[in-house]
Amino acid sequence: MRRPGPGGGLAVLASRVRYEEKRIFAALERREIRYTHLDTRRVTAGLEDGPGNGIEAGSEAGPEGGPFTAALTREISHSRAYYAALLLEGRGVATVNRAEVIAVCGDKLRTSLELRRAGLPTPRTRVALTPEAALEAAEALGFPVVVKPLTGSWGRLAALVRDRAEAQIVMEHRAALPSPQQHIIYLQEYIDKPDRDIRVVVAGDRVVAASYRYSEGWRTNAARDGRSEPCPVTPELGGLALAAAKAVGGGVLGVDLIEGPGGPYVLEVNHTVEFAGLQAAHGDGVDVADAIVSHVLEAV
Fold it and tell me: What is the CATH number of the domain that holds 158?
């Protein structure tokens, strides 16, 4: 590992400083790594040659607004995370995660295509280009099916549809939404699983830790008050999580797995992984933020 040298520094991009970002800042400070927190809502970037990296973040960035040697993207907005990484990479700044990884992970269809290209087990999936065509797609999968938006997190706008009548209602709602992207319908078979899923945090080629996420409903997101408990990282789970992370381009990622009758499936891969529940489940036995910092230093 090596620290960013004199004249350089680490930019941590985040519009909201949550539990995870506070842990990362603390890990950087313990290692005496110079960093600047950039609020992406204030960032501007010149495309022409200029001082530093051409990245500005208003007065809050202070005198250490650049140049940057590397950047860690913790932005919760997919669009701002992607374009910030794209701008930084265009100025020669190493980013974690890379813009292409953010683009793939932020789009469920692109993620599914990469996972299937890598030969990894995923739920059967169909995509309809209109809400009207989605009714036939749902019947082809067989009810119940899960309808998800192409982009988004925390289980928002996801629906468990049990029959054609429910599908008709969901599709009418999707058709009424103003965004054309919401009219592209992503459907997956419903996997009969325990009342939990598995979150695995991967940093580079290392599995940091895993946790079970329990919920009384069919969605087990920690943001929806899901309960987390430690999950043993077996060779099967660890190998599957690493393969999924590699398939989307690698970096610091949260791989979500579900346990089906035939074994584990990869559900999705998160580019700005939240780890508060996993960290609480493991306590002092795991330091996710420190593992993230270690990977960033190795990557740059």
Answer: 3.30.1490.20
| Rg for the chain, CA atoms, rounded | 20
The residue count for the chain: 300
CB 158 within 8 A of CB 218: no
pLDDT digits (tens, 9 = 90+) for 81-97: 999 999 999 999 999 99
237 and 148 fall within a common domain: no
Residue type, 115: L
**Mean pLDDT, all residues of the chain:** 90
Phi, psi of 98 (to 5 degrees): -65, 155
Same domain, 202 and 295: yes
CATH number assigned to the domain comprising residue 240: 3.30.470.20
pLDDT at 219: 63
What does the pLDDT look like over 138-160, one tens digit per residue?
A: 999 999 999 999 998 767 889 99
Work out the average pLDDT over 229-258: 98
Q: Which two tokens stand for residue 258?
A: 């579900």
How far apart are alpha carbons 246 and 242 in whole angstroms? 6
Distance, in Å, from the CA atom of 267 to the CA atom of 142, rounded to the nearest integer, reads 18
Is position 132 within any domain?
Answer: yes
Q: How far apart are CA 283 and CA 248, in angstroms?
A: 29
Q: Which residue is it, tokens 């992370």?
A: 245
Whether residues 202 and 291 share a domain: the answer is yes
Q: What is the pTM of this model?
A: 0.90
DSSP string, 120-145: -----EEEESSHHHHHHHHHHH-SSE
